[in-house]
Amino acid sequence: MENTLETLGALERRLHVAVPIADIEGEVRKRLTRLSRTVKVAGFRPGKVPLRMLDQQYGPQVRSDVITERVQTTLNDAIRAQNLRVAGTPRIEAQRGDQPATENLEFSAVFEVYPDVQVGNVGDIAITRPIVEVTAADVDRTLDVLRRQRTTYTPVDREAAAGDRVRVDFTGTINGVEFEGGQARDFPIVLGEGRMLPEFEAALTGSRAGDTRTFALTFPADYHGREVAGKEAMFELTVREVAAPQVPALDGEFAKAFGIASGDIDDLRKEVEANLRLELKRKVDAAIKAQALSGLRQRSTFDVPKSLVESEASALRERTIANMRAQQNVKPQDLELSLDVFRPQAEERVALGLIIAELVRSEKLQAKPEQVKALVTETAQTYEQPDAVVRWHYEKPERLRDFEAMVLEQNVVDWILARAKVTDEPATFEQVMGPRPNA
Prior knowledge:
By secondary structure, the chain is α+β, with helices and mostly antiparallel strands. The protein has 12 helices and 11 strands.
């Protein structure tokens, strides 16, 4: 029987393959013969065990192993002969039991093939490139944020005001019944941060240690706690402490806390400026890359292998679940995420990967060792011992794969930028980076 290929869809194929049964049985006999030389069977000397007895005891497993290997080998040979590029793992279908017996073990493999990726015209892709520098004011704002992040609090005997930290005990009820997550003891709330609902902060403003307050609030309809979203609750709280903020001074002690051995504020400013420049470069590069790759994807239309999409969606879901498990107060039902949520993103990631691979091949955009080394070195600068970090990555080749992928992607972006319509646009640090935390 000759191998035959059947087209089931745009990318789906069925390959009919046959393995001579005589070949399978011949290999089974060889393996049983080799086994007879070492296997121990009661009543027989080594090498004297009848093959028929070995076949009864070990034949099913040996035969299963041989069939699996021969099917895979024959399938691989047939795929090469047909010059097919298989996407994903083939699904093996055995011959139906109602078919007449033949001298061959016949089976089919159903799989998808990679699409023929045609990259459209990238010359009309419009890209806006932010032109921005780190200013002294940006450094000042960052230092201010760093100082406030190290704020300490001192108990005071006065009414609570914006910026104060208030420690409270509270209990919430809905229709007179306490609900999950509606109780806390010695819970810290910084007035003005906006981390609590407005009714909470309003009830605490002007309070003193020992005060008790009762108030109502309605949870927003889009509140993250689905059980209470849109419902009205009553809260009773007791203020345990009011503490005023103490922001550290910008002095030598503060500089040393950030690793500046000299304690010199100018040295700290230089360190902060260097870090901001690195952050800014990454943000600008990411913005340009997003525009370039989005434009590239829009100009490349082809069918995306479903098997690759399913695999990528599963990987995305598993990573999301793993990240959620690392968070606090995650409920089991929150981890029940449908693959449907991840399929659109997975399809875009797979499609973009195929486009990038095609451009790398056709335009010879492979990652050069010096490019990979430069990226590893740049990333290592964010660690205390950059040289040790670089050495660690080069100890095992697999540790460089992510960097190689990033270089490939950047090579494609650079190729697009050389052809696209790029417009430089002045911008500020805040516009590019967004509001700074606690700014």
